[in-house]
From TrEMBL:
PANTHER family: ADENOSYLMETHIONINE-8-AMINO-7-OXONONANOATE AMINOTRANSFERASE (PTHR42684:SF3). One of its GO terms (biological process) is biotin biosynthetic process. Gene3D superfamilies: Aspartate Aminotransferase, domain 1 (3.90.1150.10), P-loop containing nucleotide triphosphate hydrolases (3.40.50.300), Type I PLP-dependent aspartate aminotransferase-like (Major domain) (3.40.640.10). It is found in: Mitochondrion. This is Dethiobiotin synthase. GO terms for cellular component: mitochondrion. Residues 1-10, 104-123, 538-565, 655-680 have a biased composition (Low complexity). Pfam families: AAA_26, Aminotran_3. One of its GO terms (molecular function) is pyridoxal phosphate binding. Keywords: Aminotransferase, Pyridoxal phosphate, Transferase.
Length: 1044
């Protein structure tokens, strides 16, 4: 012990050897599930928590059940050592960790005896090993851990505590599995493998005892139940038997449940007495009351079908004799007598815990098959799934990491498939690399706060309807969105709540079309009761234009079949001005306002009609260390004189308006987006010329189509008139562009495509000059996902309408909002309710979602809760010009474009990189750049990562590509490497692999993700090179042609 203590004292112990930035749960590793493992909690201090650990350990030793015990945090050490007491009771060995050994050395006190006669079996006939009882972190002062740190120093941060405890538990579980297997063989049985649930490992026991009460401070000062939450072991709660103990116990129970802990047993040590005034002594019924309360018909609904906790009462333990020193004398007589008397109770408790563990394993084992039989997953081809291996079973989430139920990645496939060998299943951490479809905002530290906001709203309201109703969560969320620091600050006046991003877009379209009509006076004289005058009165089918000024890849016809019924005010069908590669949701209206794609094809949306003009935007990406236009559209090469610019940094690309506030004018369009003001003005002129000419030709085509349709209708009508003396039909009105809609900066579902910012500025300027209401779809990009509270602010654009979702609630609940200007709101004023916005759903602005939004927006936009938010005086903000004097709504750079990200842009398998805000994406080449395919891409090739490019890859006939020098590589292969080698769960978008992190995550997390992605690409490259001469080795193919 002295040598260990000396070694530990020589430096500040760092038990965590994980890569910097790696989440604690990920660094802690997997915990084998074969061994029953439980955490022991107290409803308060001095309720007998250690006595319960001692009693369980004593019972396990009596039954020769393999046992390990760990105490992560101990104060009053070494005179007070719970691990030593447990070791004495079970014949085990007390082992201090390095940090705890330092406390013992500083106290100049011996640790004392670590085993004694209290156990009935310290070494059984079957080779029963002495249990290991460990103390990891300890301080001398017998006070709360946070105070002990204040008094003594030797602080331990939360991540180090979790990693050290998790790794210790995993190692102990592995040892217990081996002991159980050896004991089974020695007993004449057969082991079913190293960790199958049918082996003797299910009889083992692993205990982790916490310090103090459930909500007592950890060494960092955060609550223990929050700090240890990444481990989430099933809990044994030691209740309070005293007067007032029912309230303390149930409060502790609720505190654990609210944070996602499963409480499997409640144990009360002793039965206190109460006295009625002037009456007889009355025994308290704490255990009976708690048992009845937790077993009530509705009390276990939160357990999702699992039985209520066991509630066990054990006798009280008498005090130790005066002068007894456990370090010198071992177990005191009172404790030894109590262990003997309480052994039957603890044996029953131990057996109950083992049964519950077996039931838990059975539920988990059946879950995957149940999911495959009952669930219909989105974006999934069920016919291609491997039975029994399709589902990733998630046991829990903590911050940005899942705990999944899985076999270790290194387990051989043959062993996993063997009928005689059961693979070890484990709780395996997986980093959520897609932020669960781009929704997650909270770290481990902030998740409890979001959960508390949701729980408080559920308890207070559950749900209330919303028309002409106000409630505090809806008002708080609206205030956060519209007020200072919110995405609507300075331009939006109203918040309309809906359920998801696609519905928010539907609402935005209705708003924009109404404003378009109101601006032109086309609502005057209407009373809102003529059903023949509606926005869809014509059936014009419109996609994109064909002209000498537009790219050949954006060609289509505007064939019309116009109705004889005019639209409102005599106009034709209202159409949108949008972009190719866009995605605005899966509802019918949202699908119609984008160009054809895999999302709205005939198989998905037979009703689809592209209702608008969809321009071909220029995309940029980081290639060879510079931001460059990716396969520039043919129209840009025609409209732009001379060579196209490139940019040395993202800030240079974004231009000077990248730091503008959201109140900036959308008509500016003159901010520098090139390497010089001259280059910027040339690009802006090219963009404007293309947009204007495309619109003009599109509208001319609409007019010509309407006239042709009217001529046909007139000819048909003339014949009908001669036969029936009916009047000829009116001339059909041409369709017209009535709104501009775009995703600012980044097209997510299109393939993480970064649109050159100057193009969107020019488009917004043209839309404003033509009085087209501007809709910005910020469902994905908004609220810091793309690095700014509002991507519109990053562009210097002021919209009329903007939509937010995903990060809006931090991932806690489904909710979306459509923000609108005062002018948009006023367009719905009218003489009757029929002029109002007749849209809504049963759960509009439901309090749970609104409370989550209010909390999430605050934590994202407040520098006190978001360490990455640019704020005056914060490290990293000084490089901005001009420097911020107030929070600017911008994230500090998370990904180092001059470091890891820049090196990724030179990787042989990477054609482009996008690193924006919290998003890192790479497009994967099927062939390394050193050996490109024979058919080089031309300027008419679909944009990289776009649905058109994916469809072209899928449609390519086999055998058309030359035999490559290297084996081909797919994005799916990179994703598999990320999961198998680095514990990162990602989903590809066609040929694109993307990763992201919560906006509040440590900045080191971005470096860790970039490093893991680089390592996965390196591994795929090495595999491809090794596959040379073997026909290419596989991975590329049809899987690249679908959005996964």
């Amino acid at each position: 012990m002295g040598a260990a203590a000396s070694a530990a004292a020589s430096h500040n112990e760092s038990p965590r050897s994980a890569t910097p930035g790696q989440p604690a749960a990920s660094a802690a590793g997997a915990l084998p599930l074969a061994v029953p493992a439980f955490s022991v909690w107290g409803a308060n201090t001095n309720v007998g928590k250690t006595l319960v650990s001692v009693g369980l350990a004593h019972a396990a030793a009596a039954l020769e059940v393999p046992l390990a015990y760990v105490k992560p945090v101990q104060t009053g050490f070494p005179s007070d050592s719970d691990a030593r007491l447990v070791a004495l009771a079970c014949g085990g060995v007390a082992e201090p960790g390095q940090h705890a050994a330092v406390a013992a050395q500083e106290a100049a006190q011996p640790l004392g005896s670590s085993s004694g006669s209290g156990s009935s079996s310290s070494s059984g006939a079957g080779g029963y090993a002495a249990p290991r009882c460990s103390t990891l972190f300890a301080w001398r002062h017998a006070v709360s851990p946070h105070l002990a740190v204040h008094l003594e120093g030797r602080a331990v941060d939360d991540e180090d505590l979790v990693v050290a405890t998790g790794r210790h538990m995993a190692a102990a579980a592995e040892q217990l599995q081996q002991q159980a297997a050896a004991a089974a063989v020695a007993a004449g049985g057969s082991s079913s493998g190293s960790g199958g649930s049918s082996s003797g490992a299910s009889r083992a026991l692993l205990l982790m005892e916490t310090a103090g009460g459930v909500t007592s401070p950890a060494p960092s000062g955060r609550l223990t139940c929050d700090v240890l939450r990444p481990l989430r072991l099933p809990a044994v709660l030691v209740g309070d038997p005293r007067l007032g103990g029912i309230a303390a116990t149930l409060s502790a129970y609720d505190s654990l449940v609210a944070r996602g802990w499963d409480v499997e047993a409640v144990v009360l040590v002793g039965q206190a007495q109460s006295y009625a005034a002037g009456g007889p002594q009355v025994a308290l019924d704490n255990a009976d009351f708690i048992r009845a309360h937790l077993a009530g018909p509705a009390a276990s609904l939160h357990r999702l079908g699992a039985p209520p906790p066991e509630v066990v009462a054990v006798p009280a333990c008498g005090p130790a004799p005066e002068g007894h020193d456990v370090r010198r004398d071992g177990l005191d007589p009172a404790l030894a007598a109590w262990l003997a008397a309480a052994r039957p109770d603890f044996v029953r408790l131990l057996e109950a815990l083992q049964r519950r563990h077996a039931a838990r394993l059975a539920r988990l084992a059946a879950a995957a098959a149940q999911a495959e039989a009952q669930l219909w997953w989105p974006f999934t081809q069920h016919a291609g799934l491997t039975p029994g291996g399709a589902a990733t079973l998630i046991d829990s989430r903590c911050g940005d990491t899942w705990m999944t139920v899985a076999a270790p990645a290194a387990a051989p496939a043959a062993a996993a498939a063997s009928a005689t060998t059961a693979p070890t299943t484990a709780l395996t951490p997986l980093y959520d690399g897609s932020c669960s479809w781009w929704t997650q905002a909270a770290t481990t530290e902030l998740q409890p706060e979001l959960a508390r906001a949701v729980g408080a709203a559920a308890g207070r309201y559950l749900h209330v309807l919303f028309p002409e109703v106000a409630h505090e969560p809806a008002l708080a969320a609206a205030g956060a969105l519209l007020g200072p620091g919110g995405p609507g600050a300075g331009w939006a006046q109203r918040v309309f709540y809906s359920d998801d991003g696609s519905t928010a877009i539907e609402v935005a379209l209705k708003m924009a079309f109404r404003k378009f009509l109101a601006d032109r006076g086309e609502l005057l004289g209407l009373h809102g009761d003529d059903s023949s005058h509606h926005l869809g009165a014509t059936t014009t089918t419109t996609t994109t234009t064909t002209s000498s000024s537009s790219s050949s890849s954006s060609s289509s016809s505007s064939s019309s079949s116009s109705s004889s019924t005019p639209g409102i005010g005599g106009g034709g069908e209202l159409l949108v001005l949008g972009l190719q590669g866009a995605y605005h949701g899966d509802t019918l209206g949202a699908q119609d306002c984008v160009a054809p794609s895999v999302f709205n094809g005939r198989l998905q949306a037979p009703w689809y009609r592209g209702r608008g003009l969809f321009l071909e935007p220029p995309y940029v990406g980081l290639s060879q260390g510079r931001w460059q236009l990716q396969e520039p559209p043919a129209w840009l090469l025609r409209h732009h004189p001379g060579p196209l610019p490139s940019w040395g940094s993202l800030d240079e690309l974004m231009g000077s308006s990248g730091s503008s506030s959201s109140s900036g004018s959308s008509s500016s369009g003159s901010s520098s987006s090139g390497s010089s003001s001259s280059g910027s003005s040339q690009l802006h002129a090219a963009y404007t010329s293309y947009i204007e000419s495309a619109i003009d030709e599109f509208e001319a085509g609409l007019k010509a189509a309407a006239e042709a349709a009217a001529a046909t209708a007139t000819a048909n009508g003339t014949a009908a008139t001669a036969a029936a003396a009916a009047p000829a039909p009116a001339t059909a009105a041409p369709g017209r562009l009535a709104a501009c809609i775009m995703e600012p900066l980044l097209q997510g579902a299109g393939g993480m495509l970064l649109i050159e910012p100057g193009f969107q500025r020019a488009l917004a300027q043209v839309a404003r000059s033509r009085r087209l209401p501007l809709i910005l779809d910020e469902v994905f990009t908004g609220l810091l996902r793309a690095g700014h509270t509002s991507a519109a602010a990053a562009l210097g654009i002021t919209p009329d309408i903007a939509c937010y979702g995903k990060l809006l609630t931090g991932g806690a609940a489904p909710l979306a909002v459509t923000l609108a200007s005062r002018e948009v709101f006023q367009a719905f004023a009218g003489p009757s309710k029929l002029f109002a916005l007749l849209h809504g759903h049963s759960y509009t602005a439901y309090p749970i979602g609104a409370a989550a939004a209010a909390a999430a927006v605050r934590l994202l936009t407040d520098p006190a809760t978001n360490p990455n938010l640019c704020a005056p005086g914060r490290a990293g903000c000084g490089g901005k010009s001009p420097a911020c004097i107030v929070p600017c709504g911008r994230l500090l750079p998370l990904f180092d474009e001059k470091g890891l990200v820049g090196r990724l842009s030179h990787h042989p398998l990477v054609s482009r990189v996008v690193a924006l805000g919290t998003v890192l994406a790479v497009e994967v080449r099927q062939q390394p750049v050193a050996d490109p395919p024979a058919s080089a891409s031309s300027s008419s090739t679909p944009a990289p990562g776009s649905p058109a490019a994916a469809a072209a890859a899928a449609a390519a006939a086999p055998g058309t590509m030359p035999v490559p020098r290297y084996g081909s590589v797919s994005s799916a292969a990179v994703v598999r490497r990320l999961r198998a080698d680095h514990g990162i769960y990602a989903r590809p978008l066609g040929s694109v692999v993307y990763l992201m992190l919560p906006p509040t995550a440590p900045r080191e997390r971005a470096d860790w993700l970039a490093g893991c992605l680089a390592a996965a690409l390196d591994a795929c490259l090495a595999e491809a090179r090794a596959g040379a001469g073997a026909g290419g080795g596989g991975g590329g193919g049809a899987e690249e042609g679908v959005v996964v």
